[in-house]
Amino acid sequence: MKILAIETSCDETAAAIVEDGRRSLADVVSTQIEIHRRWGGVVPELASRNHVVQVMPVVDEALARAGVGPDALDAIAVTSGPGLVGALLVGVQAAKALAAAWEKPLVRVNHLEGHLVAAFLSEAPPTFPYLGLVVSGGHTSLYAARGFGDYQLLGQTRDDAAGEAFDKGGKLLGLPYPGGVAIDRLAKEGDPAAIRFPKAIVKGADLDFSFSGLKTALLLHVKKHGVPEGKGLADLCASYQEAIVRALVEKAFRAARRLQLDRLVLAGGVAANSRLRAAAVAKAAEYEGMSVSLPPVRLCTDNAAMIAVAGTQAFLRGERAGPELNADPAWRL
Ligand code: KG4
Ligand code: ZN
Questions:
Q1: CA–CA separation, 45 vs 185, rounded Å?
Q2: Which ligand is closest to the CA of 84, given by its number?
Q3: Which of the residue ranges 35-49, 89-103, 221-235, 295-309 would you say has the lowest mean pLDDT?
Q4: pLDDT-derived band at 172, boundaries 50, 70, 90
Q5: Residue among 129, 136, 111, 331 nearest 248 (CA)
Q6: Which ligand ends up closest to the CA of 248?
Q7: Which residues neighbour ligand 2 (ion) by CB within 5 Å?
Q8: pTM
Q9: Which is the closest atom of ligand 1 to the Cα of 138?
Q10: Which residue owns the Cα nearest ligand 1 atom 23?
Q11: Which of 34-43, 153-162, 246-255 has the lowest mean pLDDT?
Q12: How far apart are CA 166 and CA 177, in angstroms?
């Protein structure tokens, strides 16, 4: 079974062809990072316009790389939410048009489900049930994943997403967009204990996250001391990153213990963070029988292959979307 998936929820125009929900035959990602960099973040209108330009070339490229024609496809899957409405609409309209022209069934996929199941494309795919930590530019959520299509939301951020905390922090420090990547790189030379940032505690809901206080603490620090250079900047990056990572790892393992889940799967762009990956592995080593799945970075950041994995399972369950399919920017998983 071959599924073509299209993903345009944020600033990556992506198309992929995945076989049997496991093997990626083509995984094409056209990133707009250079376009948004000069504005210091994603500009929604620019994202939509560039998706319009890129979406068909990216689909053509995926078919070419997979060496298949439209006839070989069993269905088309598309991200219809959550995300930027104008960006989502481009992918949804393209997928609907192709499904109609090629007479293929269409299935809609939740972007977060895509992240949660991306690890099934890795060499050591996880098995259900597992605890999924989805950490991206727009989301920070903990899910108990019990099977395809069976997810329980356990906790989420009350304000900024972890990726937003990285990106806004990077912007404050004058680093290039996306801040997460820049902070990760600089932090490697820094001391994570140099500056003590406040712990992100949310009263009452102990599996929820909050990162806005941390961002304010960084702002106050910079107002007081200025933006340092050299080793000072590396220390600041390492300390700020450490505060984000500490909150993520602590809550993920708390949730895993509470639900007696012995597998943790990291997902989303922030799961590419080298410190988060190392800290999750180190923490798992403290618990008997606990394992951590770290998908390759390419599967963590936005891509369409993960949408194809979720789309394949939705297709097998008999889910279909019709020509009335619309973007659903706030679709909750
Ligand atoms: O999943 P993703 O590609 O797009 C969204 O759905 O948001 O995640 C993008 C986010 C950005 O905030 C970016 O700064 C962050 O992932 N990111 C990282 C790293 N690589 C990407 N954050 C920290 N460390 C990284 N190495
Ligand atoms: Zn994403």
A1: 30
A2: 1
A3: 35-49
A4: very high
A5: 136
A6: 1
A7: 136, 302
A8: 0.94
A9: 7
A10: 180
A11: 34-43
A12: 10
